[in-house]
Amino acid sequence: MKKYDGWWDGFFPAFRPIFSKVPARVTNAQVRFIREKLDLRAGRTFLDCPCGIGRIALPLARTGVRVTGIDITQSYLDELAGKVKKSGLKMDLHRQDMRRISLDSKFDACGNLWTSFGYFEKESDNLLVLKKMFRALKPGGKFMLHVINRDWIMANFQANEWYQSGDMKVLENRGFDYAKSISTDVWTFIGPEGSSTHETAIRMYSYHELISMFERVGFIDIEGYGSVKGEPISRNKEQMFVIGTRPRR
Fold it and tell me: According to the model, what pLDDT value does residue 1 have?
C-alpha cells in the first residue's frame, strides 16, 4: 500500500506562487470572520499553526492581536519574518511540526486555516494536531479549523484543472482514495525557471467526522459554518469553518 506521509517536505516551496491567487478581499473577509468568531480583540493572543507566509497572521497583527506563528516550511517563515520586520510589527515565529508543539494554556484562540489539516496518513496523528491546539488554548479559548468540505468535493469532483497564478502555470491531476477519504493529487508547476512535479495526499473530512474528532479531544460548543457569511455547512458549500471551545474547567 502506498505511503503518503512526508509529501510536504518539497511541496510547499513550489506551492508559494499559489498564494497570489487569493484576492485581498477574500483574505480580508476571512480575517473579519476569524476576529468575530474567535473574539480576537486587540491585546488578545492567537496561535496561527501553520501560518504560511502570514496571509492571515499579518492582518490580525495589524489589528493589535498578539500573534504566534508556527510552520514547517523555513522559506515561508523567512518571508514572513521579513514582512514583520518591515512593517514594524511584533510576532513570535517558530519552525516546528504541528504534531510536536508543546504549548500549555497560552492562547486566547488558535487557528488551523486554509486546508492545513489532514496531512498525516495515521488518523491518530491528525487527531494529535487537534489535541495540541486544545492544549495550547487557555480555558475558555476558541479554536477554528478551516478546511475543504469532503461532501462538496464528491459532488464537484474535477479530475484535471489548469490555471495561471502570476507567471506560474499549474496543472492539478486529482485522484481520490475512497478507502481512506484521501485526496491524492499530482501537481505540476511550470514557471520561468522550469517545471517541477509534486504529489500530495490530504485526508478530507465531512462535517460529522470533524464534530466527532472535536468531541473526542474535549472541545465543547462546537459550531460550523459553510462560509464567512455564516451560512450553514452543506454539500453545496466548498469550505467548512469548524469552531470549538476549551472548557473553563
Answer: 38
